[in-house]
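Tip: read the tokens left to right.
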């Protein structure tokens, strides 16, 4: 270890720590595996990781590998492929693809798993490596731990020279996705409505697929940033807000039915109505739940514990059922196996009859399909969404104190007679009001969310529990 480096408790250092600030005890976080490009995420690291992932699979299995357009992603993509091949794994190299396509094709090609390499959409110079199982879903925690153990022990399987994996480039991979896509949308209804929409591609890989999909749906599309640019795929918060403001100006000026911004991986969307009003993430989730209930009889909906109670109110009016699930991607994907619609308040939507994973392209087309069925402009449907009184905040807490805080929360709920919901974190219900205290998996703080009959009441709940979390750490 070079001077001024940090080694987390329980971490196993298996190589010299020269570059980077620290060495973590775990590999996986909420986004897969993340680290500084060419500092923590080096070709050597990626090769070892590919070998560890391959050693967790049967010799001769196939793995789909895709990436975004950044040159660092291309470098790590090739290093991962080398590690997989060394472990006797055959590779379907599909190069530049959106994440939803990677997921869908993994199952369609009957591969044993998949890897996607991308530049972080949130932070420049950070790379994310995303791992998927044979169904195209995020790996289970058990699988992640197995790969971590192999990586840290350097217990890699080395294939005999005659059994080294092969690389192929499946020409029909994308066709499976396109065919499944069209089979799950009402093309005739969308074509009859003759939509005009504005789509901001955010310089991402959806430009490789989505324009062709929209072309057959009879929509007039005004495309923004519809080319791949590796220097612009990561947007800082102020850049994203500027893009939203621009969208809200362009949509009414052009007389479009609505506008959307995709994230660079084509998993999530932000929405503007035809008047240029930008929907918050919570509004958009309730809107999708409402449109889905209107279009699908006896709908089954799943939302995370963080979602507004308005979803339950809408479902009750339309005879739909609502299930609450955890806040992780894996939890929502598992819920999609039984639910016809799953959504979260950060712009991710799942339509289980198509594929149980977030897909921005399917979400946009489903929005068109639902609006065609409702025969209403988007702003009129938004008026039917109940007014939301939600506050979302955070409370700092050291790692070593998180267990103490959770225990005190449970004790307080029992004394006060609140109904406690323990799906993810601790959610306390008091009549129609609720507050959720959720420990962040990767950072030293709690998420504190509250909903009440007014914003003032919701803010009071947040302030109350932020103070309690501070006191319980003393």
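Filled-in amino acids:
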């Amino acid at each position: 270890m070079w001077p001024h480096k940090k080694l987390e408790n329980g971490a196993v250092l298996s190589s010299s720590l020269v570059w980077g600030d620290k060495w973590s005890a775990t590999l996986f976080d909420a986004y897969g595996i993340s680290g500084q490009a060419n500092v923590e995420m080096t070709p050597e690291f990626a090769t070892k990781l590919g070998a560890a992932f391959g050693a967790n699979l049967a010799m001769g299995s196939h793995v789909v590998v895709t990436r975004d357009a950044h040159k660092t992603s291309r470098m790590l993509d090739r290093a991962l492929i080398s590690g997989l091949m060394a472990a006797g794994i055959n590779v379907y190299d599909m190069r530049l693809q959106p994440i939803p396509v990677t997921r869908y094709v993994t199952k369609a090609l009957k591969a044993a798993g998949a890897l996607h390499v991308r530049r972080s959409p949130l932070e420049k110079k950070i790379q994310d490596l995303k791992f998927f199982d044979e169904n195209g879903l995020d790996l289970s925690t058990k699988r992640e731990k197995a790969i971590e153990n192999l990586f840290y022990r350097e217990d890699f399987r080395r294939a005999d020279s005659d059994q080294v994996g092969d690389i192929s480039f499946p020409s029909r991979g994308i066709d499976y996705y396109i065919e499944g896509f069209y089979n799950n949308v009402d093309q005739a209804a969308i074509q009859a409505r003759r939509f005009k929409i504005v789509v901001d591609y955010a310089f991402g890989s959806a430009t490789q697929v989505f324009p062709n999909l929209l072309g057959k749906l009879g929509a007039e599309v005004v495309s923004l940033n519809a080319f791949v640019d590796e220097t612009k795929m990561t947007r800082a918060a102020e850049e994203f807000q500027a893009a939203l403001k621009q969208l809200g100006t362009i949509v009414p000026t052009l007389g479009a039915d609505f506008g959307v911004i995709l994230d660079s991986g084509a998993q999530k969307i932000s929405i503007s109505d035809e008047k240029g009003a930008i929907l918050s993430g919570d509004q958009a989730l309730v809107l999708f739940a409402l449109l889905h209930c209107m279009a699908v009889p006896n709908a089954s909906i799943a939302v995370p514990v963080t979602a507004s109670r308005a979803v339950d109110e809408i479902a009750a009016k339309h005879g739909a059922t609502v299930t609450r699930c955890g806040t992780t991607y894996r939890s929502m994907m598992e819920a999609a196996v039984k639910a016809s619609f799953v959504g979260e308040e950060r712009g991710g939507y799942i339509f289980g009859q198509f594929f149980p994973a977030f897909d921005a392209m399917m979400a946009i087309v489903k929005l068109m399909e639902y609006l065609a069925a409702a025969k209403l402009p988007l702003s009129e449907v938004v008026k039917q969404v109940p007014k939301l009184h939600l506050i979302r905040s955070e409370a700092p807490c050291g790692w070593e104190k998180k267990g103490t805080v959770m225990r005190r929360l449970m004790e307080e709920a029992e004394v006060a007679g609140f109904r406690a919901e323990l799906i993810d974190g601790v959610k306390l219900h008091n009549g129609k009001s609720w507050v959720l205290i959720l420990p962040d998996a990767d950072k030293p703080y709690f998420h504190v969310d509250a909903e009440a009959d007014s914003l003032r009441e919701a803010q009071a709940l947040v302030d109350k529990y932020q103070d309690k979390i501070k006191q319980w750490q003393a």
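The two ends are 34 Å apart (CA to CA). Residues 237-254 form the longest helix (18 residues).
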